[in-house]
Amino acid sequence: MTEVRIAGVGLTRFGRHPDRTGRDLFAEAALRAFEDAAVPRADLEGLNYGNFIGALAEGQGHQAPLMAEAAGLRCPATRYEEACASAGVAVREAVRTVRSGEADVVLAGGMERMTHVDTPTTTRGLATAADDLFEVRSGVTFPGAYALMARAYFDAFGGDRTDLAHIASKNHANAVDNEYAQYRREVSIEDALDAPPVATPLHLFDACPITDGASAVVIVSESYAEEHGLDAPVAVTGTGQGTDRMALGDRESLTETPAARDAATAAYEEAGIGPDDVDCAEVHDCFTIAEVLAIESLGFAEPGEGIRAARQGVTTADGDLPVNLSGGLKAKGHPVGATGAAQIAELVRLLRGDHPNSEHVADATTAVAHNAGGTVASAVVHVLEVAE
Amino acid sequence: MSSSNAGEGDEATRSGFDAWIDALAGGEGYYLESPCGHGSLPPRRVCPECGSTDLTERPLPETGTVETFTVVSVPTPTFAEDAPYVTAIATFGPVRLTGVLRGVEPDDDAIDLGLDVTVGVERRETDDERVVVFRPTG
Ligand SMILES: [Zn+2]
Predict the structure, then answer these.
(1) Is A161 on the interface with B (CB under 8 A)?
(2) In a domain, B75, yes or no
(3) Average pLDDT over chain B, rounded to whole?
(4) At residue A61, what are phi and psi to the nearest 5 degrees?
């Protein structure tokens, strides 16, 4: 099997870019990734592009060739859509393509524009990640779905809004020095607790913001990296994907995300590692409770124990296992179709030592990315390791 | 795409669902049961648990139990006039239903998990579309 390296990464600043086109956002991220990789555009053999609600929010379907053109590529281009896990799947398929020997150089990434429309329109667009017939028609919103899981979790295991506030506060603190983050400011526990409700028990600071942004990563074979003398120290050593029943009510448990557990099991097995080997992780904290479910499904905490990890300092920047050193979706922002590849980009920077928060993981060699779609009916997990 | 009907599915998808809503509205709500006893909701051709295509309609139990709920303050456009409202997941025998919980204050402190509810079909305030509604028993 061909080994896979990440040759370069590119992000736009995440935040509000209502006056910019999607093609401009993606081109910025892609050109930055090509420059970082030192790979000529002519060598690209494929574009795997993630986008979720472009057809609804921008009235623009068929975005993959549009984005290939914007990035200066003339190669097969395909859009991947798996709700908020769209770019994670785009990365995974790029890894599989390179591993198979089909291609040596593939660009994977994504873009989402969300702030140019009003909140009800965005809320409606994001709600399409849920089951239209049995959830959306019964008033389930995206925050509402995670709120249903949060209350079930509290009922089963204990935990409260203060535990969740510690997650929000941690991730905001991590974003302060990240030049790509949407909200580079601290949020205190009190601020989080005092914020207005969105869908109880979740309040404003339990939710990720509405974000525009794009991400891109250049994925190459190890042999291509060696032939061209690329500085590509980070390898993708494991990838896994899981699927669950679409509607939350149809799941075996309202407090677990087995799709992510399945994805993690597969990714760990490929990499030949276990959760104890992981030095840091970027997980899909679209809501604070989602980080809890994520770290449990990744095996970093037992079921029912993840709620306390941030409050106890385990997952903080100085903790044993820093989670979301980028600021996470919570503070870095969540341009949904771009997020999965953005997580990979941030981990690559952290492992290479050129991330503003690299000092917190100076000796790290192994990192995990966890990207989830909807209420984790889809999940993608990647293992990244610094190659010897 | 207008905001009033966006995200509501196409007519082909709705027809099977509407038949189920009609039955629920007429007090004859049902679920689908596979030979090994798995419950699921229509429209569906295959049991998602065991893969059986031999699905039989069974009457829904008359009362269900609220397993979790949320008071939604930031709605989608189709629930704009309904907010704040309560969405709940309730267990009815072998299936769970997701619906709007009415007949309670939309307030965390006014609602207990484990609440016994009936299920029926009512209208959304926003656009008069039909919606699955739970109400406390008694
Ligand atoms: Zn069955």
Answers:
(1) no
(2) yes
(3) 91
(4) -90, -170
Instruction: Please state the domain count of chain B.
Output: 2
On the CB side of A189, CA atoms within 13 Å amount to: 8
Q: Does residue B31 sit at the A interface (CB-CB below 8 Å)?
A: no
Identify how many contiguous H helices and E strands chain B contains and give both numbers: 1, 8
Query: What's CA A227's distance to the chain center, in Å?
Result: 31
Q: What is the dihedral of CA A368, A164, A139, B28, to 10 degrees?
A: 90
**Could you tell me if residue B97 is inside a domain?**
yes
- Subunit contact B74:A123, Cβ cutoff 8 A: yes
User: Is A17 designated active site?
Assistant: no
CA distance A101 to A316: 39
**Region B60-81 average pLDDT:** 96
Please list every residue in chain B whose beta carbon sits closer than 8 Å to the beta carbon of residue A201: 70, 108
- pLDDT tens-place string over residues A130-145: 999 999 999 999 999 9
Which residues are A218's β-sheet partners?
A8, A107
Domain range spanning residue B26?
A: 9-59
Residues B16 and B71 in one domain: no
Chain B residues closer than 8 Å to A155 by CB: 68, 113
Q: What is the DSSP letter of A323?
A: B
Residues B17 and B39 in one domain: yes
Shared domain for B84 and B126, answered yes or no, is yes
Contact A367, A279 (CB under 8 A): yes
Residue B20 to residue A332: CA distance in whole angstroms: 43
pLDDT at B1 over 60: no
The partner residues of B118 in beta bridges, in order of sequence, read B135
Strands, E assignment, B30-126:
30-33, 39-40, 56-59, 64-72, 85-92, 95-101, 116-123
The type of residue at A141 is: T
Residue A193 has pLDDT above 50, yes or no: yes
What is the arithmetic mean of pLDDT over B19-23?
95
Asked if B110 and B69 sit in the same domain, the reply is yes
Can you list the domains of chain A with their CATH numbers?
Answer: 4-117+209-381 (3.40.47.10)
Is A105 within 8 Å of A44 (Cβ atoms)? yes
Question: Is the residue at B54 inside a domain?
Answer: yes
Distance (Å, whole) CA A192 – CA B15: 44
Of A200, A245, A249, the CB nearest to B97: A249
Considering only alpha carbons, which residue of chain B is nearest residue A245?
Answer: B48
Distance between CA A92 and CA A58 in Å, rounded?
A: 26
Q: Which of A68-72, A367-371, B41-45 has the lowest mean pLDDT?
A: B41-45
User: Among all residues of chain B, which has the CA nearest to that of A138?
Assistant: B99
Q: How far is CA A259 from each of CA A242, A249, A306, A361, rounded to the nearest angstrom?
A: 4, 15, 17, 28
